[in-house]
Write a structure and sequence with these properties.
The structure holds two protein chains of two kinds.
Chain A (H helix, E strand, L loop, with lengths): L1 E5 L5 H15 L4 E5 L2 H6 L2 E4 L4 H10 L2 H10 L4 E4 L1 H6 E4 L1 H5 L8 E6 L10 E7 L3 E7 L4 E5 L4 E6 L2 E7 L2 E4 L10 H8 L3
Parallel strand pairs in A: 1-2, 1-3, 3-4, 4-12, 5-6
Antiparallel strand pairs in A: 6-9, 7-8, 10-11, 11-12
Chain B lengths: L6 E2 L2 H10 L4 E5 L2 H10 L3 E4 L4 H7 L8 H10 L4 E6 L3 H10 L3 E5 L20 E5 L2 H9 L4 E4 L9 H18 L3 H12 L4 H8 L9 E3 L2 E2 H18 L5 E3 L7 H9 L5 E3 L1 H4 L4 H13 L4 H7 L25
Parallel strand pairs in B: 2-3, 2-11, 3-4, 4-5, 5-6, 6-7, 7-10
Antiparallel strand pairs in B: 8-9
Helix pairs in contact in B: 2-4, 2-13, 6-10, 7-10, 8-10, 11-13
Classes of the chains: A alpha/beta, B alpha/beta.
Chain lengths: ~200, ~325
C-alpha cells in the first residue's frame, strides 16, 4: 500500500516517520512518502493532510490541483486523514475565521469547524482523551480547531466538553489534535487499518 | 474539561508549535494592514515589529519591544500566529509579550540587547521562543535555555543573504562533526560551549570574589549542570543528525531565489524581514517567496514566481555596515 503525506507545509516528516513505525508494528508492507505532486497523490491508497497553517496549506494545494486529487481519492473511498489544520480543510463549513481569510475547504465531511477553538498558543495543551476504537489517549492540541457541529452521518470518536475533537465519516478521519507529534502510533495504526 | 487535567506550556507543546511552522514563511510586519497582506499571501505567521530591521538599522538608537497597542492591532487583524521580538535577556519584555497573547517570542539581536551576560531562561515561560544563532554553539545554548525554534542570525536589514548562508553552513558542518564524535569529545565540546555562561563570574572574580564549584552561575544552574544540559542537547543532535528543534533561515533573505537557496541548505522554513515591505511590490514578493519555499526543489517554479516582481529591497554590503547585529548575544 502507498500512503501520501501532503507536503504543502507543516509537520510532514513527523507523519511520514510515524506511519513507517505504525506499518512496522502492524507487520505490513507499505510505502509512505511526502508529496505535492498530483500524479503521486493519485497513485496513493490513502492520504494524510498534516497540521500546519490552514490558510497556507489551502492556498498551496489549490494552486497546483493537489486539492482535486484529494477530493477524487476520497470520493473513490480511499482513506483520508486530516490532523489540526488538515481537519479544518476536510470540513464543509468553516467559522468566521475561515470565511474572513477566504480559506477554500475541501468539503469532504459534513462538519462545522471552528479555528483556534481553544485559544492562542499559551492556551495550547495536552489532555487525556477517551477515543472510540482507541481508548485512553494523550492528545496534543496546538492552536487547535474543533468540530462544533456534525451531521448524523458523522461518527463522533472523542470530545472535550461540547467540542468534537475526533470524528469519522466513512473513509474520512478528522482530528483536532496532532498524533504525529507523539510516540503513540495507535491513531496511525487505526488509519492504516482503514485501507482495504 | 477539568482545567487541572490539562497540561500547558510543555516542551512538546512548544516544539510542536514550531513544527507547525515548517515549510512556511514568517513575515515581519509593522501594522495591521501589512499583517493582512502577509496572511493573504500565505505566510504561516507574522512577526510584529515597530520598524522593519532595515529601518531600525537606518534610524539607530535603542531598539525595543514594539508598542503593545500595535501588537494587539496585529493580533486582531489576522488569524495566523503572531510573534513579536523582545531584547536579548529582557525578561520583562518577554513576560509582557506573553501576557499580550503573542504566540511566540523572538529573543532577537535585531533589538538592542538588555542583558550583557545572559539570555532569558525560556523554560520559565508558557509560550515558546525562537532565538538567532550563528553557530552550533549558540544554537545549543539557546536550545538548552528552552528555545523551541532556532533561526540563523544572518545580518538583518541588509537584504544580503551571505551571512544567513554562512551561519547555516557553519551549523551544518559542525553537526556533521558532532555525529562522528565519541563521548569524551562531546563532553569537551559541551564544556567549550558552556564557557559563554561564565562571563559574569569572571568579572566579579576580577574583584577578588571567588565562586565555589557547586554555586549557581546562571539562574539556578551550576557550571556542571550547564555542561550536562548542553551535552544532552549535543547527544540529541548526534542522534537526530540535525538540531532537535525546527531551524529556520533569517537575516538577509530578499528574493524567492534567496529563500529557495536557504531551503536547499537545509532550513525548515524562512523568516523574511525587510525583504517584503521594503520591496517595490510587497504582495507580489510575499506570494512569490511563499511559493518558492514550498517548491524549493523545483527550479522552474522558482524561476516562474520570480518573474516581473519589480525591484527587490535595496541591499547592503556587509563590509560597509556600521554595525553588525549578529555579534549581539552569543
Amino acid at each position: 500500500m502507498k500512503i501520501a503525506v501532503i507536503s504543502a507545509q507543516g509537520d510532514v516528516e513527523e507523519h511520514v516517520e510515524i506511519v513507517k513505525k505504525a506499518l512496522q508494528e502492524l507487520g505490513k508492507e507499505g510505502k509512505v512518502f511526502a508529496t505535492m505532486n498530483k500524479e503521486d497523490v493519485a497513485k496513493a491508497d490513502a492520504i494524510i493532510l498534516p497540521g500546519g497553517e490552514s490558510t497556507t496549506i489551502s492556498k498551496l494545494i489549490h494552486k497546483n490541483s493537489v486539492a482535486e486529487e484529494i477530493k477524487k481519492a476520497s470520493f473513490e473511498g480511499k482513506p483520508v486523514m486530516g490532523t489540526c489544520a488538515g481537519a479544518i480543510l476536510l470540513a464543509k463549513h468553516g467559522d468566521e475565521e475561515v470565511m474572513k481569510t477566504k480559506t477554500k475547504l475541501l468539503g469532504l465531511m459534513d462538519i462545522w469547524v471552528k479555528r483556534n477553538a481553544f485559544g492562542r498558543q499559551k492556551e495550547s495543551f495536552h489532555a487525556m482523551l477517551n477515543i472510540e476504537g482507541i481508548g485512553e489517549y494523550e492528545a496534543i492540541f496546538i492552536r487547535a480547531p474543533a468540530i462544533i457541529k456534525a451531521k448524523s452521518n458523522v461518527k463522533v470518536l472523542a470530545k472535550i466538553d461540547e467540542y468534537i475533537v475526533a470524528a469519522q465519516q466513512d473513509n474520512v478521519l478528522a482530528l483536532s489534535f496532532r498524533p504525529e507529534l507523539t510516540e503513540d502510533t495507535r491513531i496511525h495504526r487505526y488509519f492504516i487499518k482503514m485501507i482495504s | 474539561m477539568d482545567l487541572e487535567k490539562l497540561r500547558f506550556g510543555t516542551e512538546l507543546v512548544k516544539r510542536g508549535f514550531a513544527k507547525m511552522q515548517k515549510g512556511g514563511v514568517i513575515m515581519d510586519v509593522t501594522n495591521a494592514e501589512q499583517a493582512r497582506i502577509a496572511e493573504e499571501a500565505g505566510a504561516v505567521a507574522v512577526m510584529a515589529l515597530h520598524k522593519v530591521p532595515a529601518d531600525i538599522r537606518a534610524s539607530g538608537g535603542v531598539a525595543r519591544m514594539a508598542d503593545p497597542k500595535k501588537i494587539e492591532e496585529i493580533i486582531d487583524a489576522v488569524t495566523i500566529p503572531v510573534m513579536a521580538k523582545c531584547r536579548i535577556g529582557h525578561v520583562a519584555e518577554a513576560k509582557a509579550l506573553e501576557a499580550l497573547g503573542v504566540d511566540m517570542v523572538d529573543e532577537s539581536e535585531v533589538l538592542t540587547p538588555a542583558d550583557p551576560f545572559f539570555h532569558v531562561d525560556k523554560r520559565k515561560f508558557v509560550i515558546p521562543f525562537v532565538c538567532g544563532a550563528r553557530s552550533l554553539g549558540e544554537a545549543c545554548r539557546r536550545i538548552w535555555e528552552g528555545a523551541a525554534m532556532i533561526r540563523t542570525k544572518g545580518e538583518a536589514g541588509t537584504g544580503n543573504v551571505i551571512e544567513a548562508v554562512r551561519h547555516m553552513r557553519l551549523m551544518n558542518f559542525a553537526i556533521k562533526k558532532v555525529c562522528k564524535m565519541d563521548e569524551e569529545e562531546m563532553h569537551k565540546l559541551a564544556e567549550e560551549y558552556a564557557k559563554a555562561y561564565t562571563k559574569l563570574v569572571e568579572e566579579v572574580g576580577k574583584e577578588g570574589l571567588k565562586i565555589k564549584e557547586n554555586e549557581p552561575i546562571y539562574e539556578e544552574y551550576t557550571r556542571d549542570e550547564i555542561v550536562k544540559g548542553i551535552l544532552d542537547v549535543l547527544e540529541e543532535v548526534k542522534e537526530l543528525r540535525r538540531l532537535p528543534v525546527v531551524n529556520f533561515a533569517a537575516g538577509g533573505i530578499a528574493t524567492p531565489a534567496d529563500a529557495a537557496l536557504m531551503m536547499q541548505l537545509g532550513a525548515d522554513g524562512v523568516f523574511v524581514g525587510s525583504g517584503i515591505f521594503k520591496s517595490e511590490n510587497p504582495p507580489a514578493y510575499a506570494r512569490a517567496i511563499v511559493e518558492a519555499v514550498n517548491n524549493w526543489e523545483n527550479a522552474e517554479v522558482v524561476a516562474e514566481v520570480s518573474k516581473g516582481l519589480g525591484e527587490a529591497m535595496k541591499g547592503k554590503e556587509i563590509d560597509k555596515l556600521e554595525e553588525r547585529l549578529q555579534v549581539r548575544g552569543i
